[in-house]
Each structure stands twice: as C-alpha cells, then as structure tokens.
Design a protein that fits this description.
The complex is a heterodimer of chains A (about 280) and B (about 130). With about 280 residues, chain A is mainly alpha-helical. Chain A is built from 11 helices and 7 strands. In chain B, helix 1 packs antiparallel against helix 2 and helix 2 crosses helix 5. Classes of the chains: A mainly alpha (about 280), B mainly alpha (about 130).
C-alpha cells in the first residue's frame, strides 16, 4: 500500500504548477489556488470567475450574453417549482425534508458526520424521496435537473462556503481524496483535471478556450447547447473524464462526491449563479 | 486503402513520371516519392481529432483552428538535428517534463510505432 501511494503523492506535489503539497491544510490550499487565478487573470474581477470561460473569452461572452437574454434553462426552473410544490404520494413535500428550502444550494456539498460521507444536493434530494417512498431520480440527465434548477435559481446570490469540519478527520480525508483526484493524470491521453483547468486555463485546446477551475461549481445545473438540455455537475465530470479516454466514475459515487467537495471548497467566497448556460 | 495511397503517390510522383517517361523506377525518384507519402500520412495523423490531434495544441502550417497550449511546430529540422530526440518527445513527453500536457503517444499506444514515424516524417518538413 505504502509503496503504491508514494509515487502518486510526489507526482501530485510536482504536478500542481501551484505547489499544493499534500501536507498543506485546506486553508493554505485555498489561498494558493485562488491567488494563482487572481495573478493569472489580473483583469478579471473576483465575482466574474463565477461565469466560467466567459470571464476569459470576450468573443464567446457576447454570444453568451445574448443567450442569457432569453435563458434556455427557464422552462426547467418552472418545472422544478412544480415538482417542489407537488405532494409525494404520502402527502409530504420536499419542504418537509428541507425546512429552509428552496434556497438551500449553498448548504451543499457538506460533510455528514453521521453518515461518514460527503452529501451533495442531488444525493440529499434522493434521500428525501426514498424516505418518503418515492423512486430516486437519475443523477446525470432528466427531472432532477429541473428541481436543481429551481433550487439554484432561488439560491442565487448566496456565497459558496463549504466547511471542512475539524472535529472529524474523515472529512479532511474526503477533501484530500478529491484533491488527489483533481491532480492525477488519467486516461489514454494522460490528462489531469488540473492540466486543463489550472495549468492551461485561458489557453485554447483546438478552438475551445479552457475555463479556470475557480468558479467551476457555482452554476449547476447548466444548460449546454451541446447537450440541448440541462445537466448536472457530475454529468460534466463524466464528459471531462471521457474526453481523455478515461473510464468515467459513477455519478454520486464516492470519487465524484469527494471531487465536488474539494472543487467547491476551492471556490469558497464566490456567489452562486445557477442555473448556468454554456456552449 | 492501397488504392488511395497509390493515387496520392501518382500525384506526388506525377511530374517525375512524365519527365522520366518509362524510366520511373529510377532509385532516387522512388525514394523521394516514398518519403513524401510517409509525410503525407503523418500530416493526416497530426490533423486528425481521433489520432495525433497535434493541431489541438500546436500551431502547424496548413492546419486550421490550432490550440495555444504547446509551442508552434516550426524549424524542426534545424532545432532537432538529432531526429531521435524529436521522436522521444512524441513517444513520451513526460520524460522531459513530468507535468506536461502533451500525451505520451508511444508509451500509451495512442499511435502505433509506424504512425509515430509518419508524424515524425511530417513534422521534419516543418
């Protein structure tokens, strides 16, 4: 075990370009990560990072601003509102699971001490459904996106503030796993997430400009022209894994939940602005 | 496959064939036509999304929508007098730079050894 782990960790330490050593605390990582992007894009205002690639691509941005005039995700928000208000077969509502709802996006992902795992919003939604005798929704495509769109819209303006509680070492472990995932090269093409979205953010890969990792989690679900509909963050993770010819992981499985935990923590302080629209 | 290749050869060696009449199988001509076809095959690989896709990261003469991740591929012959160094960079770029973005085309079998030689023949013309 030990022998297997070592090379990965050394690789990680060198890999980052920003040297996020694995011994660093999350607070130190956060500072380094955010400063790296502030320095790399000195003209981009802080809140602008929530707009993804359009913070660094003036041409794509014009197009996007035109699209946002008549947002393609709007019908999904409406459908999500209906879902939120409709009673389950047992007469209960989502509100019974989420008394502070529907504006609850900023509470996720969070460390659940009792369950000993990272709980994301889609997972919490399905936990609620199951507890009320309803079938769980699919995690990448379909109806869950409508409900998430409504919740995201109601949560606009809240700030990302993921907490890594100090009283449970397993939370830090989950964070570290997500971080390791982000910096590990994988697939036949041998890319890490960081290769594209840290090291080469702002560069063009063929004709696509690569977005900075900072802000990647603020606007889900997102309507993608390529998808022709709204999809979840884990659907996007799947796509980014596939394009390097790596086998994607399961949506809402441990790997992607830990990845979301790390990645969202890195955007702490940024406003939530979902649902999003991207090309 | 063979047919298409020979058609390429015909255009490439066409002028020579006309010039030399029946004597086309003169060795020098045969060699240069052969080299040209390897470079042609290499060019296709370098520009193909499914194969080398070098254009995704490098500016390469003759290619459209190049990426900006790697340096422009120009003056290769002058900059790499030792051809094996150039081949090594394509075969496994992580040897020279462990955090490089460039995929290890040989080590990860993204391209076959033959395809790598073809790409090499192509970029030597740049």
């Amino acid at each position: 075990m030990r022998q297997k782990l070592l090379p990965i960790i050394t690789a990680l330490a060198i890999l980052s370009g920003l040297p996020m050593a694995s011994a660093a605390s999350p607070e130190q990582d956060l500072k380094k990560f955010q400063n790296y992007f502030k320095k790399k894009f000195p003209k981009v205002k802080w809140e602008e990072f929530a707009n993804g690639v359009y913070a660094v691509d003036p041409i794509g941005r014009e197009n996007w601003e035109a699209i946002e005039e008549f947002p393609p995700y709007e019908p999904f928000i409406d459908e999500g509102e209906e879902m939120w208000n409709k009673a389950f077969a047992n007469g209960k509502h989502y509100k019974d699971c989420f008394p502070d709802g529907p504006a609850i996006a900023a509470k996720y992902p969070r460390w659940d001490k009792a369950k000993g795992m990272v709980v994301t919003l889609p997972l919490a939604i399905n936990n609620c459904r199951k507890a009320n005798g309803e079938k769980p929704l699919k995690y990448k495509k379909g109806k869950i996106n409508s409900l998430l769109a409504y919740i995201a819209f109601q949560s606009r303006g809240q700030k990302t503030h993921v907490v890594i509680p100090k009283d449970d070492p397993r939370a830090l472990e989950a964070y570290e796993k997500g971080k390791k995932f982000y910096f590990t090269k994988r697939g036949q093409l041998n890319f890490s997430c960081a290769n594209c979205h840290v090291q080469n953010a702002g560069n063009k890969i063929r004709s696509d400009i690569l977005s900075p990792a900072l802000g990647h989690t603020t606007h889900w679900p997102t309507y993608r022209s390529k998808w022709g509909t709204v999809g979840t963050l884990h659907r996007r993770f799947t796509g980014c894994n596939k394009q390097v010819r790596a086998k994607p992981f399961k949506a809402q499985g441990e790997q992607y939940r830990d990845l979301e935990y790390f990645l969202t923590y890195m955007s702490n302080g940024l406003p939530l602005n979902g649902p999003g629209a991207r090309k | 496959m063979m047919k298409r290749k020979s058609r390429v050869l015909v255009t490439a060696a066409g002028a020579a064939a006309i010039l030399f009449g029946g004597l086309v199988i003169e060795p020098a001509v045969h060699n240069s036509a052969h080299a040209e076809s390897a470079a042609d095959a290499g060019k296709k690989i370098a520009f193909s999304r499914k194969k080398g896709n070098c254009i995704a990261c490098h500016i390469i003469a003759g290619g459209t929508s190049p990426g900006t991740i790697g340096p422009p591929l120009v003056g290769m012959q002058a900059r790499y007098p030792d051809k094996s160094k150039l081949r090594a960079q394509i075969w496994d770029a992580t040897k020279a730079n462990p955090i490089t973005m460039m995929p290890p085309f040989g080590r990860h079998k993204i391209l076959s050894e033959k395809e790598i030689d073809q790409v090499l023949a192509f970029i030597m013309t740049l």
